[in-house]
Amino acid sequence: MVRQHVNPLSRYHQQPRPLPPPDELFADPARPLCLDIGSARGRFLLAMAALDGDHNHLGVEIRRPLVEAAEADRQAAGLGNLRFLYCNANVSLEAWLADLPPGLLRRVSIQFPDPWFKTKHQKRRVLQPALLLAIAAAL
Length: 139
Prior knowledge:
With about 140 residues, this protein is α/β, with parallel strands linked by helices. Helix content is about 35%, strand content about 15%. It has a four-stranded parallel sheet. The mean pLDDT is about 85.
């Protein structure tokens, strides 16, 4: 069973994960990149990558079992323009976005974000100012 929510502030999830550059992730790293933050099991990106072969698609997710399942589905489908990576977006994504070649990132999707609706839990939300600024700068 996979937990519905995890605490992104736990020590385990606060460890920075170096994310590979696009040339290590995709068959054609020069294609424009679409990023999905909180990709869960990857159903959305599996469909998008199959329909849109002109773009590379990257899904990041904080729940490792979901990343492993999505990667298995990607490999079974033989999609070279799609990858799923485990990371805490607020810890690892900002530096990775800053290192992207200018103009590579074309689209960012975040579906059903932030189940932390109480004010006291705002610090756990994915949509933090630093991450939003990094996304805006990369776009």
